[in-house]
Amino acid sequence: MRLTTAPPPLRTRTTVLATAFAAVLLLIGGLLLMNPDRADAAADPLISGGKSATASSAEDSALGAAQAFDGDPATRWASVEGKDPQWLQVDLGAAATVSRVTLAWEAAYAKAYRIEVSDDATTWTRIANEAAGNGGSDDWAGLSGKGRYLRVFGTARGTAYGYSLHEVQVYGSLAGGPPPTGAFTVVAAGDIAAQCTASSSSCAHPKTAAQAQRIDPKFYLTMGDNQYDDAMISDFRAYYDTSWGKFKAKTRPVPGNHETYDPAGSLAGYKSYFGSIAYPQGKSYYSYDEGNWHFVALDSNAFDQAAQIQWLKDDLARNKKGCIAAYFHHPLYSSGGHGNDPVGKPVWKILYGAKADLILNGHDHHYERFAPQNADGQAKADGIVEIVGGMGGAEPYPIEEVQPNSEKRISGPYGVLKLNFTDTSFGWQYVDTAGQVKDTGPTRTCH
């Protein structure tokens, strides 16, 4: 064990030479757990377990960021090899006061790194710094950082490989008390696979897929126009499948207008490619639950068909979850090239009446978020938040006519939506293909 010479934060490091001492500490810790009255009553709880995580890179899909926060010492996150700097980041889900951070390094450790916190995942404050790391386990105690996000930022590798952590554990307290249960993260995008592959440096959908994979969500949503131009099955296999296809089993898609252009018939290639994933209830629209959320996946190509409208009313009437999110291709409100599309207004009215919280759309190739509003575009405290996320890989569209209640618009950088859900709230970020957070939406409470 060696203590840092600087004042708090205090770090101890366990190495191979200290294995026996570490075993004693584990034994003592176990005895304290069995006798909580003897434990330090002021010790802060773990606040990072199972939280949404991102990283600058991952060596492969089995070594994603989430593996460092899953509580399993046998799993790990690993960055790509041979590149500095690299980082691993966790969203604690709410503003937090961080008092302690422990790191369990794999053989590929950091010789130099810093621990940082941030309120917005953009501006970072250093709370700990290591300049002579030698791997093993690092325990940083006595910290006093404040922020919603924490990251380990490696600046110099200790080996020729990359950076790899079995576990990162963050201790402290969250604003508002204990974290809500049932938290999960979703990645969403629309307008994805142009007719190109990673062999072309200008091809965007492999890059958005790589960023989506680094976020490592519970599942993925697509908001239509998954494949350009006519969404034939041959094109799905040649393009979409080479990038976003790796998430197929965890994807909950909806169709866009380009899926209707297939010469083999409207939605033929879409249905052939996704199969029961896109038709789990035998229709091109469906619903499912996750945590305290009810998700409704709709086919906006068929909003004029009474069958889907009646199904939606019946589905919402049966819902027992406290929060509702819907997603479909055509946005009712948009400041982009396609503009507002009134086809969705009757559906909005139904969703608003059911106290829905969130609507996700594609169609216009930009990112945009709106303040809560009703179907008539009136700002309402109990209104629905609409997000346009059509930057999954198709050529960007410019912003043309800014709509009322539009809070933020970004056109140009390709990227994905990272959506964080709890039992009672939701928040999101727009993350570009380089992993940069271009916008962070406010955390909203469910109606």
Q: Which percent range describes the beta-strand content?
A: 25-35%
**Globular, elongated, flat, extended or rod-shaped: what is the shape?**
globular
Order of helical and strand elements: EHEEEEEEEEEHEHEHEEHEHEEEEEEEE
Number of helices: 6
Biggest sheet features: 9 strands, antiparallel
User: Could you estimate the helical fraction of the residues in percent?
Assistant: 10-25%
The N- and C-terminal alpha carbons lie at a distance of: 51 Å
Please mark out the parts with pLDDT under 50 across 5 or more consecutive residues, or reply none.
1-7, 14-42
Mean pLDDT: 90
> Class by helix and strand content?
alpha+beta
Radius of gyration: 23 Å
Number of strands: 23
What's the short version?
This protein is 14% helix and 32% strand. It is an alpha+beta fold and 447 residues long.
Task: Describe the overall structure.
With 447 residues, the protein is an alpha+beta fold. Helix content is 14%, strand content 32%. The chain contains 6 helices and 23 strands. The strands form 3 sheets. Strands 1, 2, 3, 4, 5, 6, 7, 8 and 9 form a 9-stranded antiparallel sheet that branches. Strands 10, 11, 12, 20, 21, 22 and 23 form a 7-stranded mixed sheet that branches. A hairpin with a 3-residue loop joins β20 and β21. The longest helix is centred in the first third of the chain and has 16 residues. The chain is globular and about 65 Å long. The protein starts with 9 loop residues before the first strand and ends with a strand.
